[in-house]
Design a protein that fits this description.
about 100 residues; about 50% helix
């Protein structure tokens, strides 16, 4: 998945959350409904944002493009790296079940 595709997905999810009567529940459902979740957050690069995997890191290690294409993947936007790390703690691979 390209950076442009991730950015489009994150934007679509942002619109979904904004239109929801319960954005927090919608966010949780989107994240829990996917195997791999990227968080996009602003930075000072030329692109203007960076990304961090908040869920699915073990699935990505040593995976090839074909393996990754079979995994459900989404992206969400975050205000900053602090929010990204909080999202990873709340929804990531190491969270208590």
């Amino acid at each position: 998945m390209t950076h442009a595709e991730l950015a489009r997905i994150a934007q679509a999810n942002l619109q979904l959350f904004a239109a929801s009567p319960n954005p927090a529940a919608e966010l949780k459902a989107v994240i829990e409904g996917h195997e791999i979740v990227f968080a996009l957050f602003p930075d000072t690069s030329e692109r203007g944002w960076d990304l961090h995997i908040i869920k699915g890191k073990p699935l990505i290690v040593d995976a090839n493009d074909e393996d990754l294409a079979k995994r459900s993947t989404t992206a969400v936007t975050c205000a900053d790296l602090v929010e990204v790390l909080a999202m990873e703690q709340a929804f990531g691979d190491g969270r208590p079940h």
